[in-house]
C-alpha cells in the first residue's frame, strides 16, 4: 500500500507552536524551501494557551536587570544541571527576539513611557515578562502565524507525523497521515526541525491539550536520538480543581504576580512557613513587604507565593495531605483581597487578568474579584527532551534539530515561568537558521520505501483488530492514572518500579488496541497511534526518575528528600538500544567557564 | 449522577449526507458540551470527529452550533442548557463539512493571505524601537484578542445565506483589518481594498457577529463601523457633505 503523496523540502518543520513557526520563518527567510506540519489547525498549538508572558531582560521596568541576572536566575531555577551555554544564549538573545515580534506587529502592554511593559514572575529577580494581559501566547502565535503567511512556507495542517526515517544514520524524512482523510504522506527533507511541544498527556491532571503526547520526544527516541532530563517534569502549582471537568486547566502565575496569595483552610498564608535557604535573601519577610513588591517598590523583596513552581507545588501538596486543603482538594488562591489595598480592585483585576476572570466566571461560576479560587498542582511542562547542541540545536542524529519544549537543556531541573516563550523564539530561530544552513550544503536524501511501508502497516493494524481489540481510550486512561499516582509530584523507588512494570503491561495492551470505522478523522485510531508515544515518553520519565536518587527541582523523592552534590554533576540520558530496550546512562554536566561562574556568584546575594 | 441526551450530527465519510444520532450519557457537575462529546467518544462512538485543543476558550478550535446557536463547545456549560430535551450539537453550517462536527475552514486562511500585511513605520526612538502609549493600543488589543474560532463568519448572512465567499471577507477579517488600520505603527493603507475587494459595503450591520463572539469583541461598533466611516470619508465625502447640506 503506497503513500498518497510525497513532498520534498529543504527544511521540514514539525510543529507550529512558537518554536516551529519561528524556525520556519528563519529558514524561509534564508531562502530555502520550507514545509511545516502540524496536528491541529494553524494557530491552535499549545503556545496559544500561554498566559503570563515571555522573559527577556530588557530592563524596562527595572534598570538593574541584565542578561547576567536573567542567566543567573535561570541557572538557579534549574538547580545548575542546565546546559549553561543554552541559558547564556537565551538570556542574551531574548530581548532582540521580543523586539522583533513588535516589528512584526505584536502589541505588548506598555509602560507609562511607552515601552514594552514587563511583569514579575516566580524566580525572576526583576520584572521581566513582556506580556499582553494574560493572553501572551495568543499574541505570540498570531504574530508568528501572520508573519509566516507571507513567506511562502507550505503548511500541512492536521497532519500527524508517525515515523521519522533515517538514511545512513542521518535524518531523511517522515511519514505522516492527514486527519481529514486518513491518507498517508511521505516528506523528504535535507534538514528536519522537531518542534512538537510537551508530553503532559502522560498524566491524568494536566494543563496540556490532546496534542501534548510527546510525539517529537518519542519519534526522535525511536530513531535513536538521545533524550535527557526526562525525570524533570514541572507540576504547576495552580491548576483549577473544581468542577471536575476542568481539573488541571491552568491558573496563570500572573495571578500571584498581581498580588494573589495562597491560603489553607485555616486562612493561613502557608507559603511563609517554608522558604528554602537559597531563596531567603530574596524573599519578603512579611505580607506587608510582599505587597510592596507587587506594587513595584524596588526596595521590597518578592512574596513567597512567587518562589519556584516545584517548591510552591509541593507546599500545596503538603497542606492538602495534612488536611488543611480546600473543599475539593486544593488550596485557596485569593486575589479578591487586594480590595483592602487599592480602590478600584475589581476593575483592576479584570484589566490585568481578563481571561482568568472569564475562565472562572464561565467554567466555575465564580467571580475572582470577590471570591477566592480553589487551586492545586497540575502537570504542566517537561524540562526533559531531545538532547541538542546549544548553538545549533542539532540533536544527536545528524540533520535532526529540535527546539522548544521537546528539546532539553536550557531549563535544567526546573523551568522558570516565562522562560518557555522566550526559549521558543530564541532557539526556534537558531534551529531554523542552522537547519537552513545544513540544507543548503546537503543533497536531497532518500526516504527508504521499506521503512515507510513497515510504519504504514503497523499504524493500520488497529483496524484489523476492530472493536474486538483493546479500547485505546481505556489504555490511555489507565496509563495516565498510573503515571499520576506513581511518578507524580512526590516519588519513591517502590512506586516507580511498579510504574515500570505496569508500563510493560500497557505496552502489551496497546499492541492489541483496535478501532472500528473509517480512517477519516477517526480519533479512536489517532489515540492508538498516540499511545505508542505516551508509552515511550512515560518509560523514559520513570526510568530516569529511578536513576536520580536525590531530590532536585521538579523531581522530588521522599526516599531521597535532599539534594546530593554528586547528582548535580550529571544529566540522565535515555536511548533506545538495538534490541528495543531503553538504556539509561549518565552524561557529565559541562563545567561552567570562569566568567559565568563569576556572574552566578555576583548574583547570589 | 444524572443523564442527558445529545443529538449529534453524524456524517457519512467524505462529507455529504448525514443525520442526527442520539446519545445518552452520564453527566456531572460543571460539565460543558465538549466534555459530553468526549465522553460519548470514549464510551460509545470512538470515531466521532470533533476539534478541540485548550478546553478553556483560548484556541477557538471547538466551534459548533449548539441548539442552533454558534458557540464554543468547551465554554457551553450544561447547566445553561435545557436538559429535559435532547441538546443538538451540529457543525458550523457556513463551511463545507469534513466529518461529523468538523468543517473545512481553510477558506479563512486563504482570505488572510490576500490581505495586506503589517507594515511598520521606521523606528523613531533612540534605541531603534518605537514608543506607544497604552491608551493608543487598547483598541488594537481588543481586536487582537480574536481566537479565530470563525463563529462570526459562521453566523454572518452575507456568507451563510448569500455565499459571497469570493467577494466578502467576513467579520473576522474586518476585525483583522481594523487591527492593522488602527495599529499605531502601521503605515499601509487598506481602505481601497476594503471598499472594492473586500466589499465591506455588503455588511448591513445586523450585529449577529458581535453577538456570537466568545471574546466579546465589539466587532461591529469598534471595527466595522469605524472602517466603514473611514471608507465613506475617503471615497464618498463630497456626497455626504452634500447630503448634510440638503438635509440641514
Ligand atoms: C496553559 C499554559 C500556560 C502557559 N503559560 C506560559 C507562560 O506564560 N510563559 C511561558 O513562557 N510558558 C508558558 N507555558 C508553556 C509554553 O506555552 C509551552 O511550553 C510552549 O508553548 C511550547 O511551545 P512549542 O512551540 O514547543 O510547542 P507547542 O506550542 O506545544 O506546539 C507543538 C506543535 O507541534 C505539533 N505536533 C505535535 N506532535 C506532532 C506530530 N506528531 N506531527 C505533526 N505535528 C505535531 C502540534 O500540532 C503543534 O503545532 C504555558 C503552557 C500552558 C499549557
Ligand atoms: S454585522 Fe455585518 S459582518 Fe456582522 S454579521 Fe451582520 S452583516 Fe455580517
Ligand atoms: S472575531 Fe470573535 S467570533 Fe470572530 S473569529 Fe474572532 S473570536 Fe471568533
Ligand atoms: S477547545 Fe479551545 S476554544 Fe474550545
In brief, what are we looking at here?
The complex is a heterodimer of chains A (605) and B (248). Chain A has 605 residues and is of the alpha/beta class. In chain A, 36% of the residues lie in helices and 17% in strands.
Any key phrases for this structure?
heterodimer; A: 605 residues; alpha/beta; FAD/NAD(P)-binding domain; Flavocytochrome C3, Chain A, domain 1; Methane Monooxygenase Hydroxylase, Chain G, domain 1; 5-stranded mixed β-sheet; 16 helices; 19 strands; globular; B: 248 residues; alpha+beta; Ubiquitin-like (UB roll); Fumarate Reductase Iron-sulfur Protein, Chain B, domain 2; 2 domains; 10 helices; elongated; binds flavin-adenine dinucleotide; binds iron/sulfur cluster; binds FE2/S2 (inorganic) cluster
Q: How would you sum up this structure, described in words?
A:
Chain A is an alpha/beta fold. Chain A folds into three domains: 261 residues, FAD/NAD(P)-binding domain, CATH 3.50.50; 141 residues, Flavocytochrome C3, Chain A, domain 1 (Alpha-Beta Complex); 110 residues, Up-down Bundle (Methane Monooxygenase Hydroxylase, Chain G, domain 1), CATH 1.20.58. Helix content of chain A is 36%, strand content 17%. Chain A has 16 helices and 19 strands. In chain A, strands 1, 2, 6, 7, 8, 9 and 16 form a seven-stranded mixed beta sheet that branches. A five-stranded mixed beta sheet of chain A has the order 17-15-10-18-19, with helices on one face. In chain A, strands 11-14-13-12 form a four-stranded antiparallel beta sheet, covered by helices on one side. In chain A, strand 1, helix 1 and strand 2 form a beta-alpha-beta unit. In chain A, helix 13 runs antiparallel to helix 14 and helix 13 runs parallel beside helix 15. Helices cover 36% and strands 17% of the residues of chain B. Chain B folds into two domains: 102 residues, Roll (Ubiquitin-like (UB roll)); 134 residues, Fumarate Reductase Iron-sulfur Protein, Chain B, domain 2. Chain B contains ten helices and seven strands. Chain B starts with a strand and ends with a helix. Chain B has a five-stranded mixed beta sheet. In chain B, strands 6-7 form a two-stranded antiparallel ribbon. With 248 residues, chain B is of the alpha+beta class. In chain B, strand 1 and strand 2 form a beta hairpin. Chain B is elongated, with a radius of gyration of 21 Å. The structure holds flavin-adenine dinucleotide (FAD), iron/sulfur cluster (2 copies) and FE2/S2 (inorganic) cluster (FES). One iron/sulfur cluster binds next to helix 5, helix 8 and helix 9 of chain B.
